[in-house]
Every structure is written in C-alpha cells, then in structure tokens.
Design goal:
150 residues; 25% strand
Length: 150
C-alpha cells in the first residue's frame, strides 16, 4: 500500500494512525535514506501510543526505550532502535535480537531504523519504505510504502 505524505506533519499523523493498527509486541522495520522521515514517523507512533516525552533519533545511543505514561512498570510502550552506525551485520543482528526479546517481553512496539544493516530481514514484521517524492525538492513530500507481515 503506497501513500503520499505532503510534509512532516502528514508523516507524523500517519505514524499516529499506524500505532492504533499495530498490536503490542509488533516489530516495524523502517527503511529510507537519511532525511526521508523515519524518525518523524516514529514520533507519530509514540504520540499514537500516548507517549508524551520527546522522541529523538537513537543514532548514537542505538536504542531508546519509552514506557507508556502511567504504566507503573506494567509494560507496553515503544523501543526505538537505529542500526545506522553498525557496519557489521553480526553486531546489528545481536543488538536487534536483544532489543526484540526485551520489547516482546514487555509488549512494546519495536521500531527499527536501518534494518538493512541486519544479515537478513526478519520475517513477520511490518515494513515501511520512505522516500522523498523529489530528492531535489524536500517540500515535495514523501512516498511511503507499507507492507503488512508475511
């Protein structure tokens, strides 16, 4: 399913709507060039889950955990993983496995930027590919392709 998103606000809104569609413990793989809107979409996912704290790209931290507000340790929330800086597939695979296990244990949504760093894309995941509609004109919006799990 392909969507045209006019701007960052539309990308954020799409993420909010998608959060309602994804079940607890789901994994979402986000592919796209730098600046395509992956983190903006994750910010929308977080808002759709009711997470109020600022969502930033975990490029340097590699992973960020955002519990649901008022959850009292009961689980849920969002795990945001960014594999961009991991050049070795083995390192990306190891980090992904750890974060996936933790996200599933607490029923959190796992959003993974740069999953192409993994040795193999995992099965059973939602996938989004984001592209700038016109790489020479960032104001032209984005093209988003959403694929449900196999």
């Amino acid at each position: 399913m392909t969507h045209h998103l006019a701007d960052a606000a539309a990308t954020h809104a799409f993420g909010r709507q998608l959060a309602a569609r994804l079940g607890p413990g789901s994994t979402l793989l986000l592919q796209g060039d730098l600046g395509a809107g992956k983190t903006c979409l994750v910010q929308g996912l977080a808002a759709g889950l009711g997470i109020r704290e600022p969502i930033t790209s975990p490029t340097f931290a590699l992973a960020q955990h955002y519990p649901l507000p008022g959850g009292g340790g009961g689980g849920g929330g969002l795990v945001h993983l960014d594999l961009y800086r991991l050049e070795l597939a083995a390192a990306a695979d190891e980090l992904f496995a750890q974060e996936e296990e933790e996200a599933r244990a607490v029923g959190a949504l796992l959003a993974v930027e740069w999953p192409e760093r993994l040795s193999v894309l995992p099965a059973g995941c939602w996938r989004i590919h984001l592209n700038l509609a016109d790489p020479h004109n960032p104001d032209a919006g984005r093209q988003l392709e959403l694929c449900a799990p196999d």
